[in-house]
């Protein structure tokens, strides 16, 4: 059970601590702020990865992602094969006047087509200008920071482990096959060698 008045004492302690701290004034825009690398400024679109699956548009709680596409038929790659159809992107836009920067679209994209950029200076005087079309979303891609380096103590990803084991197995099989071939060639050479005829000195 809390002691009566303890909440008040805690609140006063916080107030006292804050009062004694020196205030720091950010000199923006003369000095650019040092933002954390994972800041949510704007969303960049890496169009090549987008398959127009519509997952991001469906999951966006604000319905502020607009996607248009059409289907195209891709001819069969092998004779007698089946034609395939694929989605072609016609429009991809995000209305940043509605976006609440929740990041759900980036999280749900299964093909890594959306990324956070820390850029935040895109205020507009006309609200319509805050709807960024695919070309502008693509430009934001070039401001996306590189992913942080992997933690050297992290567990090896299963896919890399499996790929490494497959390579090691293939290398072992190849060296075993090479050794067997060399042994067979040596045995063949020994078989084909003409028999040695005895010399008179050796008879004597
Ligand atoms: S960050 Fe959230 S609100 Fe903004 S576009 Fe993505 S899902 Fe929609
Ligand atoms: S979820 Fe990703 S791949 Fe699917 S439409 Fe959105 S950006 Fe494109």
Automatic annotation (TrEMBL):
Membrane topology is: Peripheral membrane protein
Q: Quote the catalytic activity from the record.
A: a quinone + NADH + 5 H(+)(in) = a quinol + NAD(+) + 4 H(+)(out)
Write down the EC number.
7.1.1.-
- Which stretches make up the 4Fe-4S ferredoxin-type domain? 41-70, 90-119
Residue numbers spanned by region Disordered = 181-204
In terms of one coarse class, where is the protein primarily found?
membrane
The record, for InterPro entries, names: 4Fe4S_Fe-S-bd, 4Fe4S_Fe_S_CS, NADH_quinone_OxRdtase_chainI
Pfam families to which the protein is assigned, alphabetical:
Fer4
| Record PANTHER family | NADH DEHYDROGENASE UBIQUINONE IRON-SULFUR PROTEIN 8, MITOCHONDRIAL (PTHR10849), NADH-QUINONE OXIDOREDUCTASE SUBUNIT I 2 (PTHR10849:SF24)
UniProt function note: NDH-1 shuttles electrons from NADH, via FMN and iron-sulfur (Fe-S) centers, to quinones in the respiratory chain. The immediate electron acceptor for the enzyme in this species is believed to be ubiquinone. Couples the redox reaction to proton translocation (for every two electrons transferred, four hydrogen ions are translocated across the cytoplasmic membrane), and thus conserves the redox energy in a proton gradient.
| Assembly, per entry | NDH-1 is composed of 14 different subunits. Subunits NuoA, H, J, K, L, M, N constitute the membrane sector of the complex.
Protein's name in the database: NADH-quinone oxidoreductase subunit I
């Amino acid at each position: 059970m809390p002691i009566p008045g303890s909440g008040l004492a805690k609140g006063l302690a916080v107030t006292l601590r804050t009062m004694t701290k020196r205030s720091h004034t950010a000199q923006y825009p003369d000095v650019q702020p040092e933002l954390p690398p994972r800041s949510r400024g704007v969303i960049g679109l890496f169009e090549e990865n987008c398959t127009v699956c519509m997952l991001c548009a469906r999951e966006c709680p604000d319905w502020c992602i607009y996607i248009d596409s059409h289907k195209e038929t891709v001819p069969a790659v092998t004779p007698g094969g089946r034609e395939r159809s694929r989605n072609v992107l016609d429009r991809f836009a995000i209305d940043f006047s509605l976006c609440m920067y929740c990041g759900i679209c980036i999280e749900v994209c299964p093909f890594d087509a959306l990324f956070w950029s820390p850029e935040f200076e895109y205020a507009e005087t006309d609200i319509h200008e805050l709807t960024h079309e695919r070309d502008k979303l693509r430009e934001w891609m070039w401001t996306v920071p590189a992913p942080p380096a992997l933690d050297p103590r992290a567990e090896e990803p299963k896919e890399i482990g499996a790929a490494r084991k497959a390579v090691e197995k293939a290398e072992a099989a190849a060296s075993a096959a090479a050794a067997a071939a060399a042994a067979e060639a040596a045995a063949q050479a020994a078989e084909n060698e003409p028999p040695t005829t005895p010399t008179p000195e050796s008879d004597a």
